[in-house]
Amino acid sequence: SRSSAASDVYKRQANARCGGLAAPLVESAWSGPAVSPAAIAITACGPAALHRARGGEVVAQLVAAKADVNATALCDRVSRPKLLRAPLHCAVHASSMEALLAAKADVNSADSDGLTALAHAVFHRGSASDVYARAAREIRYRRPPDHGGAKEADAAAADDARLVRVLAVLLAARASVDPATCGPHPAVPLLAGLVGNRDAAECAQLLVAAKADVNARATSGDEATVLTASAARECPALLRVLLEAKANVNGTNARGSTALHVAARRCLQSMVEVLLAYKADINARALSLIHISE
Asked: Using CA atoms, how far apart are residues 30 and 15, in angstroms rounded to an integer?
Protein backbone atom coordinates (compact mmCIF):
# COMPACT_ATOMS: atom_id res chain seq x y z
CA SER A 1 0.00 0.00 0.00
CA ARG A 2 0.97 3.66 -0.35
CA SER A 3 1.28 4.14 3.45
CA SER A 4 3.43 1.03 3.72
CA ALA A 5 5.71 2.27 0.94
CA ALA A 6 6.01 5.66 2.64
CA SER A 7 6.89 3.91 5.90
CA ASP A 8 9.63 1.94 4.14
CA VAL A 9 11.08 5.14 2.66
CA TYR A 10 11.07 6.83 6.06
CA LYS A 11 12.67 3.77 7.61
CA ARG A 12 15.54 3.90 5.11
CA GLN A 13 15.99 7.64 5.71
CA ALA A 14 15.93 7.23 9.49
CA ASN A 15 18.34 4.34 9.38
CA ALA A 16 20.69 6.43 7.24
CA ARG A 17 20.62 9.13 9.89
CA CYS A 18 20.53 6.99 13.02
CA GLY A 19 21.54 3.49 11.95
CA GLY A 20 25.07 3.94 13.30
CA LEU A 21 23.81 4.36 16.85
CA ALA A 22 26.56 3.25 19.24
CA ALA A 23 25.65 0.55 21.76
CA PRO A 24 26.45 2.66 24.88
CA LEU A 25 24.15 5.42 23.62
CA VAL A 26 21.37 2.93 22.88
CA GLU A 27 21.56 1.60 26.43
CA SER A 28 21.54 5.06 28.02
CA ALA A 29 18.88 6.48 25.70
CA TRP A 30 16.30 3.71 25.70
CA SER A 31 14.58 2.34 28.78
CA GLY A 32 11.78 0.43 27.04
CA PRO A 33 11.67 -3.11 25.68
CA ALA A 34 14.76 -4.46 23.97
CA VAL A 35 14.73 -3.45 20.31
CA SER A 36 17.29 -3.18 17.56
CA PRO A 37 19.14 0.11 16.88
CA ALA A 38 17.23 0.42 13.60
CA ALA A 39 13.93 0.19 15.49
CA ILE A 40 15.10 2.86 17.91
CA ALA A 41 15.81 5.09 14.91
CA ILE A 42 12.11 4.81 14.04
CA THR A 43 10.45 4.82 17.46
CA ALA A 44 12.70 7.05 19.58
CA CYS A 45 14.73 9.16 17.19
CA GLY A 46 12.33 11.96 16.42
CA PRO A 47 11.62 14.91 18.71
CA ALA A 48 8.26 15.46 20.38
CA ALA A 49 6.20 18.56 19.71
CA LEU A 50 7.70 20.19 22.80
CA HIS A 51 11.21 19.88 21.34
CA ARG A 52 10.05 21.74 18.24
CA ALA A 53 7.87 24.36 19.93
CA ARG A 54 8.84 28.03 19.60
CA GLY A 55 7.47 30.78 21.83
CA GLY A 56 6.27 30.69 25.42
CA GLU A 57 2.58 30.57 24.54
CA VAL A 58 2.87 27.39 22.48
CA VAL A 59 5.14 25.74 25.06
CA ALA A 60 2.65 26.60 27.80
CA GLN A 61 -0.15 25.01 25.74
CA LEU A 62 1.78 21.77 25.37
CA VAL A 63 2.81 21.74 29.03
CA ALA A 64 -0.82 22.25 30.07
CA ALA A 65 -1.68 19.20 27.97
CA LYS A 66 0.82 17.19 30.08
CA ALA A 67 3.75 17.07 27.67
CA ASP A 68 6.86 15.61 29.32
CA VAL A 69 9.21 18.56 29.89
CA ASN A 70 12.21 16.30 30.54
CA ALA A 71 11.73 13.80 27.71
CA THR A 72 14.85 13.21 25.63
CA ALA A 73 14.91 12.65 21.88
CA LEU A 74 17.55 12.13 19.26
CA CYS A 75 18.27 15.36 17.44
CA ASP A 76 16.77 15.24 13.96
CA ARG A 77 19.71 16.81 12.17
CA VAL A 78 21.88 15.26 9.50
CA SER A 79 25.04 16.73 11.04
CA ARG A 80 24.37 15.39 14.54
CA PRO A 81 21.83 12.53 14.31
CA LYS A 82 22.88 10.93 17.59
CA LEU A 83 22.55 13.96 19.87
CA LEU A 84 20.08 13.36 22.70
CA ARG A 85 18.32 16.51 23.86
CA ALA A 86 15.55 17.55 26.22
CA PRO A 87 13.12 20.36 25.27
CA LEU A 88 15.09 22.88 27.34
CA HIS A 89 18.21 22.21 25.22
CA CYS A 90 16.20 22.94 22.05
CA ALA A 91 14.47 26.10 23.28
CA VAL A 92 15.42 29.32 21.49
CA HIS A 93 13.35 31.91 23.34
CA ALA A 94 13.53 33.03 26.96
CA SER A 95 9.74 32.77 27.26
CA SER A 96 9.90 29.11 26.15
CA MET A 97 12.50 28.38 28.81
CA GLU A 98 10.43 30.13 31.47
CA ALA A 99 7.42 27.97 30.61
CA LEU A 100 9.50 24.77 30.70
CA LEU A 101 11.19 25.67 33.99
CA ALA A 102 7.85 26.57 35.57
CA ALA A 103 6.75 23.03 34.69
CA LYS A 104 9.79 21.60 36.53
CA ALA A 105 12.16 21.05 33.63
CA ASP A 106 15.60 20.13 34.99
CA VAL A 107 17.73 23.23 34.40
CA ASN A 108 20.98 21.29 34.86
CA SER A 109 20.17 18.21 32.81
CA ALA A 110 22.79 17.48 30.16
CA ASP A 111 22.43 16.24 26.61
CA SER A 112 24.45 13.29 25.31
CA ASP A 113 27.40 15.63 24.72
CA GLY A 114 27.34 16.61 28.40
CA LEU A 115 26.06 20.14 27.69
CA THR A 116 23.33 21.80 29.76
CA ALA A 117 20.86 24.37 28.44
CA LEU A 118 23.16 27.14 29.66
CA ALA A 119 26.12 25.72 27.76
CA HIS A 120 23.92 25.34 24.67
CA ALA A 121 22.87 28.97 24.96
CA VAL A 122 26.47 30.17 25.14
CA PHE A 123 28.18 27.86 22.65
CA HIS A 124 25.56 26.80 20.10
CA ARG A 125 24.04 30.11 19.09
CA GLY A 126 26.67 31.43 16.71
CA SER A 127 26.60 35.17 16.23
CA ALA A 128 23.79 37.10 17.86
CA SER A 129 22.48 38.33 14.50
CA ASP A 130 22.03 34.72 13.30
CA VAL A 131 19.86 33.93 16.32
CA TYR A 132 17.72 37.02 15.87
CA ALA A 133 17.28 36.30 12.15
CA ARG A 134 16.25 32.72 12.85
CA ALA A 135 13.76 33.80 15.52
CA ALA A 136 12.22 36.32 13.15
CA ARG A 137 12.04 33.77 10.31
CA GLU A 138 10.19 31.34 12.57
CA ILE A 139 7.65 34.01 13.48
CA ARG A 140 7.11 34.87 9.80
CA TYR A 141 6.77 31.18 8.90
CA ARG A 142 3.86 30.66 11.28
CA ARG A 143 2.20 34.04 10.57
CA PRO A 144 -0.51 34.37 7.86
CA PRO A 145 0.55 36.53 4.90
CA ASP A 146 -1.97 39.26 5.75
CA HIS A 147 -1.02 39.37 9.43
CA GLY A 148 -0.56 42.92 10.73
CA GLY A 149 2.21 44.15 12.99
CA ALA A 150 4.95 42.22 11.18
CA LYS A 151 7.81 44.42 12.30
CA GLU A 152 6.58 44.50 15.89
CA ALA A 153 6.22 40.71 16.02
CA ASP A 154 9.67 40.19 14.51
CA ALA A 155 11.22 42.61 16.98
CA ALA A 156 9.50 40.90 19.91
CA ALA A 157 10.70 37.47 18.76
CA ALA A 158 14.24 38.73 18.32
CA ASP A 159 14.24 40.34 21.77
CA ASP A 160 12.88 37.12 23.30
CA ALA A 161 15.83 35.23 21.75
CA ARG A 162 18.53 37.58 23.04
CA LEU A 163 21.22 35.67 24.88
CA VAL A 164 21.17 38.07 27.83
CA ARG A 165 17.46 37.31 28.40
CA VAL A 166 17.99 33.57 28.04
CA LEU A 167 20.89 33.56 30.51
CA ALA A 168 18.90 35.64 33.00
CA VAL A 169 16.11 33.04 32.94
CA LEU A 170 18.46 30.07 33.31
CA LEU A 171 20.56 31.64 36.06
CA ALA A 172 17.45 32.68 37.99
CA ALA A 173 16.54 28.98 37.96
CA ARG A 174 20.01 28.23 39.41
CA ALA A 175 21.68 26.89 36.31
CA SER A 176 25.20 25.78 37.16
CA VAL A 177 28.22 27.60 35.75
CA ASP A 178 30.62 24.96 37.05
CA PRO A 179 32.52 23.43 34.09
CA ALA A 180 32.21 20.00 35.70
CA THR A 181 28.41 20.36 35.63
CA CYS A 182 27.45 22.44 32.62
CA GLY A 183 29.99 20.80 30.29
CA PRO A 184 31.49 23.72 28.37
CA HIS A 185 33.24 23.34 25.04
CA PRO A 186 36.70 21.76 25.62
CA ALA A 187 38.42 24.30 23.37
CA VAL A 188 36.70 27.43 24.71
CA PRO A 189 36.16 28.49 28.35
CA LEU A 190 32.53 29.31 29.23
CA LEU A 191 32.91 33.09 29.45
CA ALA A 192 34.91 33.21 26.21
CA GLY A 193 31.95 31.63 24.42
CA LEU A 194 30.28 35.04 24.62
CA VAL A 195 32.71 36.58 22.13
CA GLY A 196 30.87 37.85 19.06
CA ASN A 197 27.52 38.33 20.79
CA ARG A 198 26.25 41.90 20.84
CA ASP A 199 25.25 41.47 24.50
CA ALA A 200 28.57 39.90 25.49
CA ALA A 201 29.39 42.37 28.27
CA GLU A 202 25.92 42.14 29.85
CA CYS A 203 26.00 38.34 29.62
CA ALA A 204 29.45 38.26 31.21
CA GLN A 205 28.17 40.34 34.12
CA LEU A 206 25.41 37.79 34.71
CA LEU A 207 27.82 34.84 34.59
CA VAL A 208 30.41 36.57 36.79
CA ALA A 209 27.70 37.33 39.36
CA ALA A 210 26.87 33.60 39.29
CA LYS A 211 30.54 32.86 40.09
CA ALA A 212 31.72 31.74 36.67
CA ASP A 213 35.50 31.31 36.68
CA VAL A 214 37.12 34.29 34.92
CA ASN A 215 40.46 32.47 34.91
CA ALA A 216 39.21 29.20 33.46
CA ARG A 217 41.34 27.46 30.87
CA ALA A 218 40.32 25.31 27.91
CA THR A 219 41.27 21.65 28.08
CA SER A 220 42.22 21.20 24.44
CA GLY A 221 43.76 23.09 21.53
CA ASP A 222 46.07 25.85 22.70
CA GLU A 223 44.45 25.73 26.18
CA ALA A 224 43.15 29.27 25.86
CA THR A 225 42.33 31.27 28.96
CA VAL A 226 39.15 33.33 29.13
CA LEU A 227 41.17 36.46 28.37
CA THR A 228 43.30 35.10 25.52
CA ALA A 229 40.18 33.72 23.81
CA SER A 230 38.21 36.94 24.38
CA ALA A 231 41.04 39.16 23.11
CA ALA A 232 40.78 37.68 19.62
CA ARG A 233 37.70 39.77 18.75
CA GLU A 234 36.90 43.48 19.07
CA CYS A 235 34.89 43.64 22.31
CA PRO A 236 36.53 46.01 24.84
CA ALA A 237 33.42 46.11 27.04
CA LEU A 238 33.63 42.34 27.60
CA LEU A 239 37.34 42.63 28.37
CA ARG A 240 36.67 45.30 31.01
CA VAL A 241 34.04 43.16 32.72
CA LEU A 242 36.47 40.22 32.93
CA LEU A 243 39.37 42.35 34.16
CA GLU A 244 37.19 44.05 36.79
CA ALA A 245 36.28 40.56 37.98
CA LYS A 246 40.00 39.88 38.56
CA ALA A 247 40.84 37.91 35.44
CA ASN A 248 44.62 37.49 35.25
CA VAL A 249 45.71 40.06 32.67
CA ASN A 250 49.01 38.23 32.14
CA GLY A 251 47.64 34.69 32.06
CA THR A 252 49.00 32.61 29.20
CA ASN A 253 47.75 29.86 26.94
CA ALA A 254 49.74 26.73 26.06
CA ARG A 255 51.86 28.76 23.62
CA GLY A 256 52.81 31.22 26.32
CA SER A 257 50.78 33.98 24.69
CA THR A 258 48.98 36.54 26.82
CA ALA A 259 45.83 38.43 25.85
CA LEU A 260 48.08 41.33 24.84
CA HIS A 261 49.95 39.08 22.40
CA VAL A 262 46.64 38.00 20.84
CA ALA A 263 45.16 41.50 20.55
CA ALA A 264 48.38 43.00 19.19
CA ARG A 265 48.76 40.30 16.56
CA ARG A 266 45.20 40.92 15.34
CA CYS A 267 45.70 44.70 15.30
CA LEU A 268 42.85 45.33 17.76
CA GLN A 269 43.75 48.77 19.07
CA SER A 270 40.81 49.14 21.45
CA MET A 271 41.64 45.78 23.07
CA VAL A 272 45.32 46.69 23.42
CA GLU A 273 44.31 49.98 25.03
CA VAL A 274 42.17 48.22 27.65
CA LEU A 275 44.86 45.64 28.43
CA LEU A 276 47.54 48.29 28.86
CA ALA A 277 45.22 50.25 31.15
CA TYR A 278 45.00 47.15 33.36
CA LYS A 279 48.79 46.82 33.52
CA ALA A 280 49.37 44.03 31.01
CA ASP A 281 53.06 43.10 30.86
CA ILE A 282 54.35 44.82 27.74
CA ASN A 283 57.55 42.74 27.77
CA ALA A 284 56.04 39.29 28.35
CA ARG A 285 57.53 36.65 26.03
CA ALA A 286 55.62 33.82 24.39
CA LEU A 287 57.14 30.35 24.05
CA SER A 288 59.32 29.53 21.06
CA LEU A 289 60.75 26.24 19.80
CA ILE A 290 64.51 26.12 19.45
CA HIS A 291 66.85 23.34 18.31
CA ILE A 292 69.50 22.41 20.85
CA SER A 293 72.36 20.61 19.14
CA GLU A 294 74.15 17.89 21.02
From this structure: 16
Mutual angle of helices 163-172 and 200-209, in 10-degree steps: 10
Q: CB of 228 within 8 A of CB of 258?
A: yes
pTM of the model: 0.73
* pLDDT tens column, 64-112: 999 999 988 886 554 455 578 899 998 888 999 999 999 999 999 988 8
Q: Considering only CA atoms, which of 48, 42, 46, 45 is closest in space to residue 12? A: 42
Whole-angstrom CA distances from 59 to 86, 101, 134, 141 are 13, 11, 18, 17
Task: Give the number of residues written for the chain.
Answer: 294
Residue type, 183: G
State the Cα–Cα distance between residues 104 and 98, nearest whole angstrom. 10
Beta strands in the chain (DSSP E): 73-74, 84-85
Residue 5: exposed, middle, or buried by beta-carbon count in 10 A (0-12, 13-18, 19+)? exposed
Please enumerate in sequence order all residues whose Cβ is within 8 A of that of 43, keeping only pairs 6 or more positions apart, or say none: 35
Residue type, 132: Y
| Residues 250, 231: Cα–Cα separation, whole Å | 12
> How far is 221 from 267, CA to CA, in rounded Å?
23
Over the range 192-206, which residues count as b (16 or more CB within 10 Å of their CB) and which as e?
bbbbbbebbbbbbbb
CA distance 268 to 100: 41
